[in-house]
Amino acid sequence: MQRLVILLLMVHLGSLVRAQVQLFPVSDTLCPGESLTFTATSGCAGNATYSFWVNGDSVLSNASGTFVFLPTQNIHQIQAVCACEVNGSVTLDTAISSVSVLDANLSAGLDQTVDSGTVVTLQATGNYDSLMWSPSYLFNYPTLPSVQTTPFQTTTYMLMGYYAGCVFFDYVTVFLSNVFNIPNTFSPNNDGNNDVWIIPGIENYPDNRMVIMNRFGDVLYESASYGSANAWAGTRNGKVLPDGVYYFLLDLGNGVVKKGTISIVR
């Protein structure tokens, strides 16, 4: 009987000095890039110090009961250990919390390599409540999951998705091959240099059609399959046109139309 009383007394005294730690929040789900502050409290009647562990690794020792945590992966286990010292006696108690990071699995698709002037389809996949492609001015309907665009240079597009109160991002790059730049000036002065309007790379679009006009909209030159063999020499029906600015409309034959100005400078 006496031994039982002593055992009960030891258990009672142990409960007085036991840390009885609690960790808040008990669990939480965060958005990507979001941090979380954990708070540990205890019923320690003496001096309490805390240590924090993440996935079994010690990250903070001899600290107060506050720990600011920034996740580095999708799931983490947080453990708070309280060392409670009362009258020279130290007891330990632990509490565990879990943290997960919301993953929408948002994807803008794989990178692509296409010819210059090609109409490209981009497709968003994953979980989302709404979407936005950018640069938005490159799309007719930038909030749709499936969009089309025609890059004239290698371009990286950003997909931003909203899901369950979080914002997610993904990127896709469209690389261009057979890129060509349309010169905006030539000098048809019969010196053998730059006498006709040559567009490098136009031969990659054999189904093209070229129309050149003056500022009044009069057609000065028109040709199918424009290239070096039939390049414009700054004339209309064989007559030399004056220096100035003219306008072109180039249908590449693949659904892409380019338009701009061309200047004759002699």
From the structure above, extract its key features.
single chain; about 270 residues; Immunoglobulin-like; 3 domains; five-stranded mixed β-sheet; 21 strands
The computed structural class is mainly beta
Order of helices and strands: HEEEEEEEEEEEEEEEEEEEEE
| Assembly annotation | single chain
Number of domains: 3
Output the number of helix runs. 1
Mean of residue pLDDT?
89
Strand content: over 45%
The strand count comes to 21
CATH topology of the largest domain: Immunoglobulin-like
Major sheet size, sense and barrel closure: 5 strands, mixed
What CATH architecture label of the largest domain applies?
Answer: Sandwich
What do these coordinates show?
The protein is mainly beta and 266 residues long. The protein has three domains: 2-101, Sandwich (Immunoglobulin-like); 112-177, Sandwich (Immunoglobulin-like), CATH 2.60.40.10; 185-264, Immunoglobulin-like. 6% of the residues lie in helices and 48% in strands. The chain is built from one helix and 21 strands. Strands 2-8-7-4-5 form a five-stranded mixed β-sheet, with no helix packed on it. A five-stranded mixed β-sheet has the order 15-21-20-16-17, with no helix packed on it. A hairpin with a 2-residue loop joins β18 (235-236) and β19 (239-240).
